[in-house]
Specification:
Length: about 270
């Protein structure tokens, strides 16, 4: 993807998926594309962000997902200020020479002590407010997040979620508890990158339900026991979770080297 400066039409940045030994690349031109400098050339003056998260490689802030979570945007007031996103988000104030991480997807490993906002993983969009360019909105697998001040991002409260009744969660599969009634629903649903949710009780205003988290990460196929003694939730690559009396037990069906799809279907057979 290419991001052209708002103040200089000859200046642009490009962010792209790379090869195996170079998963992602950032390039920059100041002469309308006649020449480029890029992160794959040592000493070019432009670098890749280095994630705080120790589970992400130094040379790949998308963690192998550059085909999916990739975004670049320049500040409309200063084209030396560049924002990129992969799993997390980064900002440069010197045209890509150095980067500062300003969001984290979790508090795992060393990220817990990092003084930046907790924002859902997998960035897809960043848009500045045209009426107030100090503000921007981010779009990711967790929905919409808002930054009221682009110049003050080094805080755990600098960016906040804006998903109140933004009803767009993508569910792969859902199961209705056969013991539930229309007046008191009970269902479990597996969501894309937003875990497995249990919706229960009487519908609230506008048909919203009370929701509880069964398990995080990627949700998948679900099932209820006919006698309402247990339910099953699924994770990626054939891992499952069995809930008995509110205790969650995990089990999987996967052998070394097996070729299992990302979210294989599963079901429960009546005895």
């Amino acid at each position: 993807m290419v991001e052209v400066s708002n103040t200089n039409p000859l200046k642009a940045y490009a962010l792209m998926q790379g090869a195996t030994n170079e998963p992602v690349r950032i390039a920059k031109t100041t002469d309308g594309g006649a020449t480029w400098i890029a992160t794959n050339v040592a000493g070019s003056g432009i670098t890749l962000p280095n994630p705080v998260d120790t589970s992400q490689p130094d040379n790949d802030f998308t963690r192998g997902q550059s085909f999916y979570d990739l975004v670049i945007e320049t500040d409309p007031d200063n084209d030396e200020h560049v924002y990129v996103g992969g799993v997390d988000s980064y900002k440069s104030t010197d045209g890509g020479a150095t980067w500062t991480q300003y969001t984290k997807w979790s508090n795992n490993n060393v990220m817990g002590s990092t003084n930046i906002s907790l924002v859902h993983a997998d960035q897809h969009a960043l848009v500045f407010n045209p009426k107030n360019t100090s503000q921007f909105v981010m779009g990711n697998d967790g929905g919409i997040f808002f930054a009221p001040d682009k110049n003050n991002l080094a805080s755990t409260t600098a960016i906040g979620m804006r998903n109140k009744r933004f009803n767009v969660t993508q569910f792969y599969h859902g199961t209705l508890n056969p013991s539930s009634t229309f007046a008191n629903e009970d269902m479990i649903l597996g969501a894309q990158d937003n875990g497995t949710k249990r919706l229960s009780g009487v519908a609230l205003a506008n048909n919203f339900y009370n929701t509880s988290d069964v398990y995080g990460g990627d949700g998948a196929y679900t099932a209820f026991d006919d006698q309402n003694k247990y339910y099953i939730a699924s994770y990626v690559y054939n891992y499952h979770f069995l809930s008995i009396r509110r205790k969650l037990l995990s089990f999987g069906f996967r052998s070394k080297g097996s070729r299992i799809v990302y979210k294989p279907p599963c079901c429960r057979q009546k005895s």
